């Protein structure tokens, strides 16, 4: 339990201030020395995030991790690129009428900020899933992923976004996971991928992949903890505001058994 | 654990078919009788959802419940209205520079489909929170909420959206909850509200309110279970696809203690 002074500051969304305040209290007690930065996290931390918005993307695949990263963006400088084929609002609606049997109109649109052709500089590409992953018309997305992958610090996939990345070949040889309810169809898209189950998420060098939808939120918290200065404090504070109990063990995945996904090596 | 045949159908996103298939197996065994509909859920179920998009709304407050309801919309007809002051893309960016100290550009925009003046017919209004709740400029939102509330079947608030609803006076006399990390400031906005803690969410007649951000996802699942035919099966299937472990007890709220919120009567 954090002391009251920290909570009070927290309520004002000022974690960075709280941390500086704590340091200012602690430092004199240890002889005035400012603790050295244990690594160069602050220099190497990725700043520029691109989110892919293919037709029929899952909104929670995008906005779960995005909300978590937005909390981080209030503690350190971050930039967001929302990438699509054109600058027209990106649609979440399914292409095939069979995916919307009851003729519902429940498909919001989101405004892209760059096209794939713009190819803005990004450090991290986040690929969401949803019905998008089963689309037969992913050519421009796959071309863009292939082109940008070598330049990335990190590739992050959410849910069946791993199927899209697999189709682009960028997961080949990597350990990766995906939605356990869609395991057979998604893993078939990447026969050269080392698919891992059970797994809430999998880290493999520059490639981070998460399981179904809400697993992307836990991946985002872990990413912040590992890659940003004061990441653990920032993640835990943000989780409090979101009232999200972070799943901290990447192997904590009840859905693999639930959907009869075999245990991988 | 569901039998394999059901899981297979589930993977094809066809819960309704699976349920009909199950009924076709079960019915002959009980004499061919189709079980009577236990209530008129299918007639009275709300169909038309409006989401309020005030400036600086939290994206996860909107897109968490929206993703859950979108899953429902693949099993029954639903309509979505995204409501804002104008049809210009609704911004999530804070109004005050002090809310974005590191000059981050991490604020997506979402396309509204109606203005408040359009006043489209809706059965449910969903009010998200975020920095929006602390805005001094909520006049048009408050006017709209006051106007539409008497016509609604249900009002749903997510996170600090309860603060916005409280400012409109529509929570007065109702039992309600809100984000525990923002408890003091939000409850001060509604001195006539019967604020409840601990609570992941609170149902009080036509008013459903949820605690911080991700609590809106659990509220949405509970709403589906209670208000739609086959709601429990639909909710559980959708939770599997989202890999979300639903919090099913509205009193299951560790954040009240974490943020020192007093227990209410």
UniProtKB/TrEMBL annotation, chains A, B:
InterPro entries: Class_I_gatase-like, DJ-1/PfpI, INH-QAR. Keywords: Glutamine amidotransferase, Signal. Residues 1-31 form the signal peptide. Residues 52-226 form the DJ-1/PfpI domain. The keyword Nucleotide-binding does not apply. Pfam families: DJ-1_PfpI (PF01965). PANTHER family: ARAC-FAMILY TRANSCRIPTIONAL REGULATOR, THIJ_PFPI FAMILY PROTEIN (AFU_ORTHOLOGUE AFUA_5G14240). This is Class I glutamine amidotransferase-like protein.
